Amino acid sequence: MPNYRPAPEPQFSQYFAHSANGHGDWHRLAEHLVGVSKMAKEFLQGWNGAEEAALAGLLHDLGKYGDRFQARLHGKDKGLDHWSQGASLALRHHAVAAALAIEGHHIGLQRGSKDSLRRLLPVNLSAAVLPGLALSEPNVERLESLAAGDGIEFSSPSSFVLNSWAQAVSAMLDVRLLFSCLVDADFLDTESHFEGDAQGKRPRPEGPKLDASAALAALDAHMAALRGATGAQVAVRQARETLWGAVIRAGQAERGAFTLTAPTGSGKTLAMLKFALEHAKKHGLNRIVLAVPFLTVIEQTARIYRAIFKSFPDNFVLEHHSLAGLGAEAEQRDAEEANERQRRLLAENWDAPIVLTTNVQLLESLFSNRPSSCRKLHNLMDSVILFDEAQSLPQHLAVPTLAALSHLSAAYRSTVVFATATQPAFDTLNEAVKKYAVHGWQPIEAVPEHPALFAALKRVAVRWPATGEKRTWTQLAAELRDVDQALVVVNLKRHALALLNELTRTENMFHLSTNLCAEHRRAVMERVRAQLAAGFPCLLVSTQCVEAGVDVDFPVVFRAMAPLESVAQAAGRCNREGRLNEQGRFGEVVVFEPDEEAGWRKQFPTHSYYQATELTKTLLTIRGNLDINEPEVFRAYYHRLYNLNDPASQNADLTRAIQELDFVEIAKAYRLIVQDAIQVLVPWASRHDEFLELRTEADRHGISANWMRRAQGLAVSVYRTADGPPAWAIPAKLRRGGVSDEWFILEGDFYDDTLGLNPPKGEQVFIA
Fold it and tell me: Do 766 and 493 touch, CB atoms closer than 8 A?
C-alpha cells in the first residue's frame, strides 16, 4: 500500500497542484508552476516566444490557488475551472498566445476572436467560460497575491508570439507551438511527480539524440551492401547513383521547402533519408520525421530503417501510427516490457531522432486543438520533415496545409520535403498560400536532373484504351487466365470482389484491400513477393492500397482508368527492377475502363477522384497518348486540375473557421479522412487463437486501451452508417461500463481467407 498522507486543509501556508504520489508526497503548486515554466521556456529557447512560454507556465494553473480547488484535492468539490484565471492575467500582460494556451491546456484551444478573448478579461471574468463549470476562485487579484506569497512573480515578456492575425494560418500555428510547449511541459512535470520516489520527482528518461554522422555511416554501409547484392539492370543502378549524388548536394543547401522528384524504383526511400541526414548534419538539426499516406508503406519503410539502425539505441527509430507495436519485429520488442513502455512514452511527444508516422497523424496535429495531439508539435522545430507520396495530399486541404508547412519552415528553422514520382504542381498555388503565410509555397527541387532519370528508367509501356472501349469483369477474367504473373488494380472494393467472383480460386490467386485486416495484408504481401521471386504464377487483385510505395515487381499490370497519378503509381509496381529491359522489352501496363453502371458513385471512391479521371481521359483525347515517364505531362495535368477544381475555393467550412480564428471548428473541418469509421475485430484463420483470446477478454472484462492496441492487427475499418452499427457485428463492452461505439466484434462466418470481410448482401459499408 502507498504511504498516503492527507493534504493540509485549504487556506493555509501551502497550496498543492496534485495529490499524493505512490510515495505519499503531495505536489506543491509553486514547484509545479516553476517547473513547467522553466521547461516550456527551454522548449522555445532561441525563438521569440521563450519568455511568453515561461509566463504561460507560471500562470497555467493559477486557479489552483483557489480554496475550492484545494478542496477538490480532498474530493470535496468538483466541476471547477482552474485555468481561465491564469489566461485572464496573461491577457493583462498582453500575452494573447499564452492566454489561449493556458485556457486550452485542459479543454483544448478555443477561439481567438476579440469577443472570445474579451470574456477572459479580468473585468469580465465573473464565471467560467465553459458552461457547467465554476471558477475555483473568481478573484484574480487574490490568486496573484497567493502566488506572490509562494515567491512567484509575473512580468510581461519583452516580445510576444502573436502580434497580428493578418495571416491566420501562420498566427494560429504560432499559438499551437507555444501551446505544445506548455502542454508537454505540464504533462512531463506532472508525470515526474507521480513517478516520484523517496529521492523526489523522477523525470522520464530522455529519448536518444540524433547523431547524424553515425547515422550517415550506417546508411552508407547499408547502401554498399545493397549495391553489392543488387540484381537490378545497369541503367537502374546508374540512375540510383545519380539520385544519390543529387541528394548529397541538395543536403548542403539552406533550410527551406523542397520537392524531391524521382521515378519509382530509383531508390527514393533511402535517398530521402540520405538527404535528411546530410541536411541535419549540415545544420545541426534535432530530428527527422517521415510521414507517409498508408500503413502498408510505413510498415515497409520501418523494416528498412530498423535494419539500417539495428545497432543504434532503442527507439532511435520511433514508429507512431495505429499498428506500432505489432508485427514480428514488434513482438520481439514487446518481450522487453520496459522498452515498449518507453516507446509509447516517447511517441506522446516525438522525443526521438527519427519518427515514422502517417500523414493523418502529422497533418491533423498541425490543425488540432487537443492537448494530446498538439503536445508533440514543438519537436517539429529544427527538424527535417519528409512527406513520401506527396501526391496523396487532398486538394481541398492543400492551401492551408502548404501555408502551415511554409511557416513552420520559415519561422522555426525546419526543412520540409515533398517526395514523389508524380510531383503535384503545388507551387502554382503560391499566391493563394501567401494569404495565410507570407512566404507562400516556392520549393526548391532537390533533384533538378530528374527528367533525365525518368528517361533512363523507362521500364513500362502503357497501353491506353481506345475511346469508348470497355471491358466487363468476365472479359477481363478471361484475359487474365492467359497471364502467368499479373497485378490488377481497381478503384473500388466491390469491383475487386466482382472480378474475383469471375476468377477460379487457386493457391496462386491473391486479393489485397483494406477489407483484410492488417496482419492478413502483411501475410498476403509476403506470399506474393515469394511467388514472384521464385518465378511461380501469381495473380494479385487489389485496390489502390497496393500503389503508393509498396515494393512488388510484376511484369504486367492492369489498371482501371483512374487519375493520371494513380496510373503512374500502379505502373511503379511493374518491371520495378528493370529486369525486362535486359531482355529488350518493357513491362506492360494495360489501362482499361470497366463496363460499369453510369454515375461516378458507381465507379469511383470520391467525386474529386472522378473529376481527375475525366481530366486524364480528356488529356488522352487531346494528346493521343500520355507518357507517364515525362514529368512535364504531370505538370500540365496538375495545372489543368487546379484550374478546374480551384483548391483555394474548396472546403468553405475550414476557410470560414480559419478566418474566424476558431480552433475548435478548424479541428473538426481539417480531416484527411472524412468518413467516420468503426473498427471490427475479425477472426482471420491464421490468427484465430488470438481473435478468441481478444474476444474472450472483451466479453469477460471489457476492452481497454491496451486491448485496442493489440486488436489493431486483426481489425477492419468500415463506414459508420446512419442506420447504426451493422447487424453482423456486436459492440465491444467497455471496461469502465457500457459498450463502445467505435469497436465491434464480428459475429458469424463473414471473414473469408481470400476476400477478407465479406458481410451479407445489401450491407455494403466498405471503405473504398
Answer: yes
Q: What does the alpha-carbon distance between residue 57 and residue 154 come to, in Å, rounded to a whole number?
A: 11
Instruction: List, for residues 203-243, the tens digit of each pLDDT value.
Output: 888 889 999 999 999 999 999 999 888 777 787 888 899 99
* Domain extent for 498: 458-628
CA distance 51 to 53: 5
CA angle 39-380-339, nearest 5°? Answer: 75
How far apart CA 286 and CA 313 sit, in angstroms, is: 16
Please identify which residue in the block is written with the cell numbers 494553473: 61
H or E element that contains 142: helix 140-149
Residue 347 DSSP code: H
Nearest to 349 by CA among 410, 298, 296, 286: 286
Helix (H, G, I), strand (E, B) or coil at 25: coil
CB 85 within 8 A of CB 137: yes
CA distances from 75 to 22, 79, 675 (A): 18, 11, 41
**pLDDT score, position 4:** 41
Grid cell digits, residue 456: 533512363
Q: Is the CB of residue 279 less than 8 Å from the CB of residue 251? A: yes
Same domain, 46 and 185: yes
Report CA 297 to chain centroid distance, whole Å: 12
**Domain edge (last residue) among 398, 426, 449:** 449
Place of cell 457500457: 738
Question: HEC string of 622-638?
Answer: HHCCCCCCCHHHHHHHH
Residue with cell 530530428: 287
d(CA 413, CA 411): 6
CA distance 122 to 138: 9
In this prediction, residue 761 carries a pLDDT of 64
Task: Measure the CA–CA gap between 586 and 588, rounded to whole angstroms.
Answer: 6
User: Can you tell me the distance from the alpha carbon of 358 to that of 372, in angstroms, rounded to the nearest whole number?
Assistant: 16
Beta bridge mates, 752:
756
Q: Is residue 410 part of a domain?
A: yes
Same domain, 429 and 486: no
Residue 348 in any domain: the answer is yes
pLDDT value, residue 548: 67
Please list the alpha-helical segments (H only) found in 353-449: 359-366, 371-374, 398-411, 430-434
Q: What is the pLDDT of residues 32-73, one digit of tens each?
A: 999 999 999 999 988 889 999 999 999 999 999 999 999 999
pLDDT higher than threshold 80 for residue 332: no
